[in-house]
Amino acid sequence: MEEAYRAALACIPGMNILALPRLIEMAGGPTTLWNIFENGGGRAAALVGSEKAAQFKEASRSSHPGMVLKELKRHGIRVMFPGGPDFPERLTSIYDPPAVLFMKGNQLPHQGMYVAVVGARRASGYGKWVAETLAAQLAGLGIVVVSGAAYGVDACAHLGCLKASGFTAAVLGCGIDRIYPAEHEKLFQNIENSGCIVSEYPPGAEPLAWHFPHRNRIIAGLSHAVVVVEAAEKSGALITADMALEEGREVLAVPGPINSFLSLGTNALIQKGAKLVRSIEDICDELPWDFSHAASTPPGLPGAQLAGIELSILDLLRGGPRSLDWLSARLERNPGELLPCLTEVSLKGWVGEEVGGKYRLLRDPEMPSRIKSNRSIKIQQ
């Protein structure tokens, strides 16, 4: 069983995960490579050196691929590999495709679009809002949102997708059983329940610094387009963007203030030719998918799900942009109580926030429109 041998090889202590695909190819297959390591000797030493060969011989003789796979499944971990039925086809053609992927949660959708939303870990409030809003809108159109589960933009992208009842994929730079950062335990649980968590690193692998640039090639490879929300001049998100360009993926960036260090990377990308993102429409225009057949109200965001107070907000906003204080006075609700409702209708795609803090109606639930207008949430600065 190929998945068992690939998983077992990846789980050998000291195995170079990035070198594993080449070792499998040189040996003529994962089963042959396992047997070479199990037997030891000159051929194993020729592949990995005498010290590693001795280490791998001991590890392979004290284990068995079938038992490794059984133990993984016992912990809810599935295995995907190139050529297997569940392995994403887009990953087979990237430079340095992974030899194996470990996954928890739901199966990656075979059809539809994938968009990565990445950016700064120390994101600003603006960056977090943009990431969450765009991800919710993408999810509403049935697009899979991909990110890296890190602080800041990544976490907000996953959160926005989840709030819109979408499918999100988190690609880790550590073992599939590790929650990193630890503060994201609840987020990881929600992603696993509604989407999936993916890693090429075996269970137990530490979140080492050099893992993350390598995992970025999987984020880029999975996606049809990569959107960078905020990024400093030297940022991991820019590595993802470079890898996406190398793989022929679309790269887009959200502009930011010229006096913010978090805008240096995104503004430079735009200057070099990345598409400037003002709205969800700008992203959808770059995807090889016909949105004309999409529902007029994106799935997961139907008007029937609006609560009473939310409908009251939309009704007041038909008269034009209004401030939080104005809405609070008209609805006789204190601002602290009203703000979560405004955030919710914003994430659902009904309302947008303008410069100066006023809210305006983007879509009227009583006036169905075509998908083009549903995608017109503007990203204001």
TrEMBL record:
Entries under Pfam families matching the protein: DNA_processg_A, WHD_DprA
Domain of life: Bacteria
Annotated Gene3D superfamilies: 3.40.50.450
Annotated ranges, domain DprA winged helix: 298-357
All copies of domain Smf/DprA SLOG, residue ranges: 79-287
UniProt record, GO biological process: DNA-mediated transformation
InterPro entries xref list: DprA, DprA_WH, DrpA_SLOG
Record-stated family: Belongs to the DprA/Smf family.
Name assigned to this protein: DNA protecting protein DprA
Lineage of the species this protein comes from: Bacteria, Bacillati, Actinomycetota, Candidatus Geothermincolia, Candidatus Geothermincolales
